[in-house]
Amino acid sequence: MTTEAQPMVRARGLRKEYGSQASLVRAVDGVDLEVSPGETLAVMGPSGCGKSTLLHMLGGLDRPSAGELWLAGRRIDHMSERGMAGLRRDTVGFVFQAFHLMDELTAAENVELPVLLAGRSPRAARRRAMELLDRVGLADRARHLPSQLSGGQRQRVAIARALANRPQVVLADEPTGNLDSEATLDILRLFESLHEAGQTLVIVTHDSRIAATADRLISMRDGAFIDETRLTGGTSGRLSSLVDLDG
Amino acid sequence: MLALLAKEPSHGYQLRARLRQALGPLGEAMNDGQVYVTLTRLEKAGEVVSERAAGMPDRPDRKTYALTAHGQQRVAEWLAEVSWPKPDLAEFHLKLLAAAAARLADPLAIIDAQRRELLRRLRDAQRAAMAEADGSEAALLLEGVVLRLQADLRWLEACERSWGGRKARAKA
């Protein structure tokens, strides 16, 4: 990638420690990272490897113990609480494994909420919510409660909510972890359409399907990056070489 | 091919279209020639008979193909078979052992390279699956390819843990 542009995410020597002295756990242990605007990056590793902690720090949900962190050109590792809250609302969109929708609000109301919190009018919020529900293929489910939706549909509502304030980065933590194969495919298609629209995406996952659709894949073990693969381009062979056909 | 003829006699191009639908992008490398070569081979084996429509030139693409009794028996046998492709993992396993024993290469580096290759294949298969319409026949086949590749990737993780552990113990 020929990016003269500044990275959307930049981390230097990022570290997160829990506990102290004898019981010190280094969840993230000296990570350097750059994510270009419009790039889809997947971070893969077993549970407990530190990938969720890393994602939480990138999105301002958690503060690093050490290191430097920039998001959309702003240094955030020492940002004030207030600044962090604004950042989480306007700059970042989160997608979680367990959806985290408000059970008593309809699909549309869930998507409207962050728009209202950003100070927009109820009408503007409603319009934005309908536009996004349409984009995720759920315009006809706008008045449904989360309990009336399938897992895949709930995650699509959660993705619409993540996009509500036109975030510069979407951060997804195991977004297909609770979904069956078909719903996973829907989510992958949706991420692909976001990617095509130029959205920067960082996904942490242990699902190799989602990791394989990213532009770049980083493997993480014990809080550190151990391998990096650029996947764009795929195999040089033809699709038909994936199966044996004869007779 | 025989099984496709079990429903009704067909032209070669109909068989090809049916295969294309069933295999989707995985069948893209298949050409018309292969279909007719196979039909001719089956005809020689007495499993298929061809019939030329009245007034049509004697060309394979003008013929209708049908199963013989022998062909029908073959289809019945094939349906009852339980053969299945065997995972061919021994070669990779031996490669790791040989590399480590002769100190020719780092098994972990071999595993990394292999993982990248499988991830690229998974990417291709996943993208093809994403491009299929809901309920397409080929989507189910692609899902099978995706699941196999995922299983292989999980085995590579197990290889990595095992060889990573040996390396750590060797250092200690």
What is the CATH H-level superfamily of chain A? P-loop containing nucleotide triphosphate hydrolases
Q: What CATH first level of chain A would be assigned?
A: Alpha Beta
Give the CATH architecture of chain A. 3-Layer(aba) Sandwich
Oligomer: heterodimer
N-to-C SSE series of chain B? Answer: HEHHEEHHHH
End-to-end distance of chain A: 43 Å
Q: Structural class, judged by helices and strands of chain B?
A: mainly alpha
Q: Order of strands side by side in the largest beta sheet of chain A?
A: 6-7-8-3-9-10
**Biggest beta sheet attributes of chain A:** 6 strands, mixed
Q: From N to C, what is the helix and strand string of chain A?
A: EEEHEEHEHHHEHEHEE
Helix fraction of chain B?
Answer: 55-70%
Distinct helical segment count of chain B: 7
- What radius of gyration of chain A results from the CA coordinates? 19 Å
Whole-number count of domains of chain A: 1
Query: What's the arrangement of strands in the largest beta sheet of chain B?
Result: 1-3-2
Q: Summarize the main sheet of chain B.
A: 3 strands, antiparallel
Walkthrough of the structure:
The complex is a heterodimer of chains A (247) and B (172). Chain A has helices at 51-58, 81-90, 107-117, 122-135, 151-162, 181-196, 208-212; strands spanning 9-18, 25-35, 40-44, 66-71, 74-75, 92-96, 169-173, 200-205, 216-221, 224-230. Chain A is an alpha/beta fold and 247 residues long. In chain A, helix 3 packs across helix 4. In chain B, helix 2 packs across helix 3. Chain B has helices spanning 2-7, 12-23, 32-44, 69-80, 90-101, 107-131, 137-171; strands spanning 10-11, 48-52, 63-67. Chain B has seven helices and three strands; from the N terminus they run H-E-H-H-E-E-H-H-H-H. The longest helix of chain B is centred in the last third of the chain and has 35 residues, at 137-171. At the A-B interface, helix 6 and helix 7 of A face helix 6 and helix 7 of B.
